[in-house]
Amino acid sequence: MGKTIVLFRSEYGYTKTYAEMIAKELGCDIREASELSVGSLMEYDTVIFGGGLYASGINGIDFIKQNFAALQKKNLVVWATGLCPGRPSELQQVWKHNFTDDMLKKIHTFYLRGGFDYQKLSRAHKIMMNALKLKIKMTRNRSEDEEGLLKAYEVPENHCDRRNIAELTAYVRSLQENLFTAFQEPCQ
């Protein structure tokens, strides 16, 4: 069976939590993306990358984008971790923001709901989130998501749950099974 690695870039721990869950579930290697070079990934058949979602950008995704030519023959799986529920229309915008159409033909994407703890944010992120909070408070007809975010400023949220990785891990297992089957077919 092919080798798989989980790479991640985590600012506040939600993406790292998911990376650890995925690696444990799949029984594969796990590394912080900044610790590796693209050359060290050549022994892997499947590369799974996860990063936090910040203003539609996936944290650390430049590693995949800048090395796409070297990685495109591998099974590429990318997940983003964020606080929002992850509605399909919103996620389509996220994927389009982060990848070209050609990349999206090769990369299988997932969204894993993470969390938010205002008290743990960096100074820069607090400034950005305060601006967002002010904007939301000035909105007359707030959406359910906006109301939920306002509540999260006061009470931290953590949606990391093993059940959230089920679709991603099932997909990767199907890749591994297909690879295993291909090796078992007799030569003609």
Structure description:
The chain is α/β, with parallel strands linked by helices and 188 residues long. Helices cover 45% and strands 21% of the residues. The protein is built from 8 helices and 8 strands; from the N terminus they run βαβββααβααββααβα. Strands 1, 2, 3, 4, 5 and 6 form a 6-stranded mixed sheet that branches. It is elongated. The two termini are 21 Å apart. The model is unreliable at 181-188 (pLDDT under 50).
Largest sheet: 6 strands, mixed
Using the CA coordinates, give the radius of gyration: 18 Å
Q: Count the beta strands.
A: 8
Oligomer: single chain
Distance between the termini: 21 Å
Put simply, the count of helices is 8
Give the overall shape, derived from the CA principal axes: elongated
The proportion of strand residues reads: 15-25%
Helix fraction bin: 40-55%
pLDDT below 50 for ≥5 consecutive residues: which ranges?
181-188
**Arithmetic mean of pLDDT:** 91
H-E string: EHEEEHHEHHEEHHEH
Describe this protein with a few key phrases:
188 residues, alpha/beta, six-stranded mixed sheet, 8 strands, elongated
List the helices and strands and how they pair.
Elements: E1 4-9, H1 14-26, E2 29-32, E3 46-54, E4 57-58, H2 62-66, H3 68-71, E5 75-82, H4 88-98, H5 101-106, E6 107-113, E7 115-116, H6 123-137, H7 144-154, E8 157-158, H8 166-184
Parallel strand pairs: 1-2, 1-3, 3-5, 5-6
Antiparallel strand pairs: 3-4, 7-8
